[in-house]
Design a protein that fits this description.
The complex is a heterodimer of chains A (223) and B (206). Chain A is built from eleven helices and no strands. With 223 residues, chain A is mostly helical. In chain A, helix 5 packs antiparallel against helix 8 (141-156). The relative contact order of chain A is 0.15. By secondary structure, chain B is α/β, with parallel strands linked by helices. Helices cover 30% and strands 28% of the residues of chain B. Chain B has helices at 41-49, 77-80, 97-104, 108-117, 133-145, 163-180; strands at residues 2-12, 15-25, 30-34, 56-61, 64-68, 73-74, 83-85, 151-155, 183-187, 200-203. In chain B, the strands form two sheets. Chain B has a five-stranded antiparallel β-sheet with strand order 2-1-4-5-6, covered by helices on one side. In chain B, helix 3 packs parallel to helix 5 (133-145). The longest helix of chain B has 18 residues, at 163-180. The chains are: A mainly alpha (223), B alpha/beta (206).
Chain lengths: 223, 206
C-alpha cells in the first residue's frame, strides 16, 4: 500500500480545516447577529453543499476553474495558476464543500448564548472584539471542537468533488478516497481494504478524542 | 444627576405597549423602580445602559449627553460604562469568581475588598456552575461594582439572597456606593427586597 494518498488526504483535510477555522468563525459570528434577508440568503448558499450532490458542485467548480472560463483565464494570466487537476484546486473546492460543517455548529452555538453575556461585557467597557475573544468564544469551545472535527473528517472522506476537480494524479490529487475507488476498479480489494481501514482508524480516533474533550460540556441533566 | 426622558415601543405578551419615562435621579441616590410585569422596567434599565435604543429621548448623566435622538447622539454601552446587574446574572461560564472581577478591573485591592464584602473570598477559584444561586447573584453585583460605575443599574439584584445576607450586603453596598459617588437604580417586585437600600421610588405603569 502506498502511503502518499493517505498523506495527501491528511494534508488536504488539515489545510482545509485551518482555512475554514479562520474564515468560518467570523462568518458564523456575523450570521449569528441580527437576522436580515441578505444573511438568510448567504446562509442558504453556505448550506447548499449539504444537500447538493457533490458531482453538481464539482461540475460547476470544474467549469469555473477551467482555463477557458473568466476566472480560470484571470488566474492563469495574473498568477500563472491552473486550479483544475491541482492540489490548490482541491483545497479551494474542499473549503467550499465543507463550509456548512464548520459554520453551522459555530453559528448555532453563538446564537444560543444568552445575549446578556455580551451585554454584560459591553457595560464593562469591553469592545466587541474583546467580548468575542474573552467571553463568547471560550463558551462555545465544545461546538468549536465539533465543527473542527466534522470539517476535518468530512474533507478526509470527500470523493465526488475531489474526483471532478482533481482526477487521480499520483502524488498530486490522488487522495485516499480516490485510491480506494481506483483499487476497487482494478480488483485490488486488499489494497482498498488497507486504505479503508487506515481512514476508518484515523477518523474514529479523532471523533473519540472530541467526544472525550466534550464529555463534561455535554453532561445531561440526569447525570 | 441623571435625567431621563424616553419613549419606547415595547412588545409584550399582551401586545405592544409604550414605555414612557420622564425622571431625574439625584447624584448618589438609590431609586427603586417598580411596576406591573411587562411595563418595561428591564427595558428602561437597558435603554439607560445603551443596550437598546428608544424611539425618542434624552439621557443626560452628570452634564454629559448620553442620548439625544433629535440630535442623533447615542453613546455606546462601552462609552456609558454603567454597572449592570442582570436579572439572569449574565455570569461568564468560562471564568472563575476572581477572573470575573479581574475582567472588569485591574485594581487588585478593590477586587479583594469586593470579594470580602460579598463574602466570596473562599470561592475565588470557583466557576459559576459551582456556586449557589445566592452566590451567583452576589458575584453579579460585585462584578458590576468592580468598574466603580457612576451609575449602577440593578435588575432584581437581591431576589436570590436570604434576609440576613441581604441586610449585611446592603450595609456594605451603601458604604461603597457613597465612596464611589454612584447613583443607583434598582428594579424590584417586592417592597421588602429593597428595604433599607432605596431612598426614592419610581413607578412605571402600562
Amino acid at each position: 500500500m502506498e502511503w502518499t494518498p493517505i498523506w495527501l488526504s491528511l494534508k488536504l483535510a488539515g489545510i482545509t480545516t485551518l482555512i475554514l477555522l479562520a474564515l468560518g468563525i467570523p462568518v458564523a459570528y456575523w450570521l449569528s447577529r441580527k437576522s436580515t434577508l441578505l444573511k438568510v440568503i448567504i446562509e442558504a448558499l453556505i448550506t447548499m453543499p449539504l444537500v447538493l450532490p457533490p458531482s453538481v458542485l464539482g461540475f460547476y467548480l470544474l467549469l469555473a476553474f477551467s482555463p477557458n472560463s473568466t476566472v480560470g483565464k484571470w488566474l492563469l494570466h495574473y498568477f500563472n495558476l491552473s486550479l483544475v487537476f491541482s492540489f490548490q484546486g482541491l483545497v479551494i473546492a474542499s473549503v467550499i464543500y465543507s463550509l456548512p460543517f464548520m459554520i453551522s455548529p459555530i453559528k448555532s452555538a453563538l446564537s444560543h448564548l444568552p445575549a446578556s453575556l455580551a451585554q454584560a461585557s459591553y457595560t464593562m467597557g469591553k469592545s466587541r472584539w474583546t467580548t468575542f475573544y474573552a467571553v463568547l468564544l471560550p463558551n462555545i469551545k465544545s461546538s468549536l471542537y465539533t465543527a473542527t472535527v466534522l470539517t476535518f473528517a468530512h474533507t478526509l472522506g470527500e470523493f465526488g468533488v475531489v474526483l471532478m476537480i482533481g482526477g487521480k494524479l499520483e502524488g498530486i490529487t490522488k487522495v485516499a478516497s480516490i485510491a480506494i475507488y481506483d483499487a476497487v476498479e482494478n480488483n485490488q480489494y486488499d489494497e482498498a481494504n488497507q486504505y479503508s481501514l487506515v481512514l476508518f482508524a484515523i477518523t474514529f480516533c479523532i471523533v473519540v478524542t472530541v467526544f472525550i474533550l466534550n464529555r463534561n460540556a455535554n453532561r445531561g441533566p440526569l447525570e | 444627576m441623571i435625567r431621563v426622558t424616553i419613549k419606547k415601543n415595547i412588545k409584550t405578551y399582551k401586545g405592544n405597549t409604550l414605555l414612557q419615562v420622564d425622571a431625574t435621579f439625584p447624584a448618589g441616590s438609590v431609586t427603586k423602580v417598580y411596576g406591573p410585569s411587562g411595563a418595561g422596567k428591564t427595558t428602561f434599565l437597558k435603554v439607560i445602559a445603551g443596550l437598546t435604543q428608544p424611539e425618542e429621548g434624552i439621557i443626560e448623566c452628570s452634564g454629559r449627553i448620553w442620548l439625544d435622538t433629535a440630535k442623533h447622539i447615542c453613546l455606546t454601552a462601552q462609552q456609558r460604562m454603567t454597572g449592570f446587574v442582570f436579572q439572569d446574572y449574565a455570569l461568564f461560564p468560562n471564568m472563575t469568581v476572581y477572573e470575573h472581577l479581574q475582567y472588569a478591573s485591574s485594581d487588585k485591592q478593590l477586587i479583594e475588598r469586593l470579594l470580602k464584602m460579598g463574602q466570596m473570598d473562599s470561592f475565588k477559584q470557583h466557576k459559576p456552575k459551582q456556586l449557589s444561586g445566592g452566590q451567583q447573584q452576589r458575584l453579579a453585583i460585585l462584578r458590576a461594582l468592580a468598574t466603580k460605575p457612576k451609575l449602577l443599574l440593578m435588575d432584581e439584584a437581591f431576589s436570590a439572597l436570604d434576609d440576613e445576607l441581604r441586610e449585611t450586603l446592603i450595609v456594605a453596598l451603601k458604604t461603597l456606593l457613597k465612596e464611589f459617588g454612584t447613583t443607583t437604580i434598582i428594579v424590584s417586585h417586592h417592597a421588602s427586597e429593597t428595604a433599607g437600600f432605596a431612598d426614592r421610588e419610581l413607578i412605571i405603569t402600562l
